[in-house]
Specification:
mainly alpha; 3 helices; 0% strand
Length: 105
């Protein structure tokens, strides 16, 4: 890990996983036999590494400040859409969107 907190080897592993997906797409258009799904493996490796890196960033943020960034954004990302869905299910109609403020003429 360097001073900025980056783990360079994980960046390299993510690059390898992206390359695996690209190679899988290119092999689809050739006559070469494919013995295993290289693209599927590349996507899985990429998502596992991304999840690990995001979790590490959030835990570092929480240790430094006492709260994670996602807690501040949870209303807009999670709670608000579910509140809109609940309103729609309970009333049978879609909630109105906020109207822009009128400008004085």
């Amino acid at each position: 890990m360097d001073r900025s907190g980056r783990i360079r080897s994980l960046d390299g592993l993510r690059a390898v996983s992206v390359t695996m997906v690209i190679v899988a797409h290119l092999m689809r258009h050739t006559a070469l036999p494919v013995h295993f799904n290289l693209g599927n493996l590349g996507v899985r490796v990429f998502f596992v590494l991304s999840g690990f890196l995001i979790t590490a960033l959030l835990s570092r943020e929480q240790a430094a400040t006492g709260r994670a960034v996602c807690a501040a954004a949870s209303y807009h990302l999670v709670e608000r859409p579910f509140l809109r869905l609940r309103f729609s299910l309970e009333t049978g109609r879609a909630p109105r969107k906020a109207r822009p403020a009128r400008q004085a003429a």
